[in-house]
Write a structure and sequence with these properties.
- This protein is mainly alpha-helical.
- The protein has two helices and no strands.
- Helix 1 runs antiparallel to helix 2.
- It is elongated, with a radius of gyration of 17 Å.
């Protein structure tokens, strides 16, 4: 019989949910601030791209983690 590991009923559970919430609360606004900082240095287009793209990326990852936890 091959060795077995403890099987979890859900792959992520409560930790995925908490990480998703923390991403929304802390990381998403931080990405927006970084984008604004880049925009204020004279790189308006790059700052906006980092701000909006990074924000959407963080929200997508957080949403995926939260949905996966159910």
């Amino acid at each position: 019989m091959p060795w077995t590991t403890r099987k979890s009923s859900k792959p992520g559970g409560i930790m995925d949910f908490l990480i998703g919430i923390l991403l929304i609360i802390f990381v998403a606004p931080l990405v927006g601030l970084i984008g604004r900082w880049i925009g204020n240095t004279g790189r308006e287009g790059l700052g906006r791209t980092v701000s909006i793209g990074g924000y959407l990326l963080v929200l997508g990852i957080a949403g995926w983690l939260i949905i996966r936890s159910f």
